[in-house]
Predict the structure.
Amino acid sequence: MPPDGFEKRTIITKTALFAVLASFLVFVLMPTIYIVSFTFTRWEEIYSEVFANPIIASENWFQIQRVLLFSFRIALFTIAFDFIFGIPLAYLLARKRFLGKGILEDIITLPLVIPTSGFGFATLITWTTVSGLGGILGFKSGLLNLADRIPLINIPFLIFAVHVGLTLPYVVLTIRAKLQELDPVFEVASRTLGAVSLTTFRRIVFPLALPGIFSGLVLAFARSLGETGATMVVAGVSTTASIAIVRWVFEFKFATASFLGCLLVVIAWALILPVEILLRRKRRLPISRSPLQTIGIEGQLLSMEKFVSRRLHYVKEVASMTVIVLAVVVPIVIVLNSIFPYWFRDPYTGRFEGGVIYQLFGPSNYFGALSRATLTSFAVAAVSTYIAACLAIPLVYVIERYRFGTIIRSILKIPLIVPTSALGLSVLLLWGPRGLGMVNPGIWLIILTHIVFSVPVIVEPTIAAYEGSEIQSYEESARTLGATSYDAAETISLPLLKRGILAGVILSFTHSLGETGATFIVMGSDLTVPTLVVNMVEALAIPAALFSSAYLIAISLVLLAVFRFLTRR
Amino acid sequence: MPDVRLINVTKTFGKIIAVDHVSLQVSDREYVTLLGPSGCGKTTTLRLIAGLAEPDEGEIYIGDRLVTGLPPEDREVGFVFQNYALFPHMNLWDNTTYGPRVKAWEEERTKRIANEMLGLVRLAERKDAFPHELSGGMQQRAGLARALSAGTNLLLLDEPLGALDARIRTQLRYELRRLVKDLGLTAIHVTHDQEEAMTISDKIVVMRRGAIEQTGTPEQLYLAPKTPFIANFIGESNFFEGSIAKASRDASIVELRGGLLIEVNSIEWKEGERVIIAVRPENIKLEPHAPADLNFLPGLVERIRFIGGILRYEIRLVNDDAVTSRVPIEAEKKFEVGEKMAVTLDSAKIHVYQYPREGLREAIKVE
């Protein structure tokens, strides 16, 4: 090779690397953490509004604490619930083979891609209206009221229901992955030594799967803290932290909103970094001193486990399935099914004004709004996915090729965990009128926001496809035959990765279609379908919301089916 | 009372019949080996006995109890795994006491039996070690101690020596048998290594393609193999194809390729019937060259291999058949490569089989 050519190539490679990293910085990293730096640079502003407000003293700070505490409580109970009901499901999926397993896996993945406001709406009508469970069970009204709280723990039921539905996949899928890594022979050995399945789980599986269980719960906790879209629809008068951000932005209390947002982003970072480090650890933590301390109760525990394992054999699996069905399947089925009775009129009062057609084409003319919103949603999804893909694919390459790639990969998890409203606010503050002033709220700002989380969404399946295949060896053989690394990537890896990339693209498109929280903050007057649904609910145009949610959910289901088809080998 | 009894047990996985109507008996305190090539069903059979799989047909008894349908934790069998399966997050002591603890035995009894078993496998000083700190041989002994501490009379071993180095394997083999005999246990040991099976078993059950080919002591299997497969799988055999030239009251004459004649003691044959005869290499004696005669086959030495105290002659007979002979190195007559000579066979040490329908190669194939 002539030395000139070699130098030229190195320069090109270095430039390309720089370009990729710079784009990553500008389009993904900065928007994610800008809200934190904003807090530092505008500290006086924030301090005076939040802590030393001339009118209300530190009332804003109290408000922040109040909503944070509320969100923490919700998150805590959510993950407790996820722990109890998610682990049997994870175990089932990891170890057993049965008819319909694929469907169960799909159902569990649904909440990850479903439009959150649509899901919130579906949960709303399932539990509080007569078209939902109330009517199915024969009552004349909904099963619950909007503001009903769960006794003892005092958390609004609806909020709890959507949080469980949306966080369960994180718990189940993370634990399942860890269990699949675990050699089943240990459980077999335990049983031959005389331990029933529950005892085997407690003494063998649980300790060995602990890192996975812990990470799953932490991810779920962070997801619950950050959940915005569905919560906006079902919260009523309650306010979680992420909803508070939206409300305060619209009340122009930017400083308070951004301080809260900053806190949430910092918490998300604080949660995810230890988890990432923990997940990377291969060495096991020895829990050597088996519960000798609990020898006192060990006897009773063992007999209880024997009883449950033998008599109540499938109870835990049935209970978990019931939870998943009630939290995820039933609302979706109900919302899709309810369009029909509501089409022309309200089926209960007979009034035309309560029918879908009237609401869409009548005086409110939601049809116009819906068409525009649809166009906006699809345009945003398409453009942001395209740009994100252009950034994600080289990023995957960088991640695999360079040692600092693992850091980038960990950073990429952050946009998925950070509360979406905080993310939206961060983008607004960075690019919007109060920051660089380059983009006004509207469709382009929405696109910039969506790029931030679309990049991680495309990167992960692509990496999974890359690492699960022999692409590296193919690349290496191509290079021994004389191809440059760029050529090898272009002619060998890219075609082989097609499937993974395509899957990531579809996932990103679907996710973008359904995104609510961040979009709400940056949309200005350009509504997307999910944000329109939120408005419809607030305006009590239920049939219109029903129609819009149903049709958005239907599109997501179709896209998810395509995604699963591509990833199932 | 036999300790383990399988009656007509069948197990299928989809279209594959892993265990095909197998019946077998293991007596109390017997050390039995299930021997066969991979895929023959031996491991599946073991797992059925342990309760790690349920048969589609048939019954399994352990002692007097019908155990079909019982989960493994209720069967009270000790299981030793090929890759040890020591719990990685527990040290040796906790691993060994796991069985007793999980059955809620009193602390005294637990300590006693764990110490006893760890002593028997010579790992008492490594009580606090974690599995990853031990060598392969130690881990296997630890697995043994753990299985034994659970207080069982029946020990099931699934290729327990498979993951070990050859040297350790031979050492541990004897320890295993000695331990089982000293403790008065019944053992069912699965392996594909026929040498292992021959050295440690009271009885060997040779399996192939889901069914039992032959059951017997190592001597019985070696000296009286019932099928060409056994003759080939256990030890080594030379095979010749031929047909019955003459059948009389006391003996038969088999005509091989090229007209060579062999007299055999086996008499249940009809004239003209196609047969296979098998002779072990140590029963092929070498003689100086002379014309062909009954049980006297001239040939040429093609190759000689030196294996410790034995010389292995590879000989090409005049009819083009190949023959291997094993001769002690101190034998008086020695031949060179390329030298013409002849082999003789003792008619009492020849096994005759009906020509297999699927052909000889298929019949002895190990797969």
User: Anything to note?
Assistant: The first helix of chain B runs from residue 42 to 50. Chain B has ten helices and 20 strands.
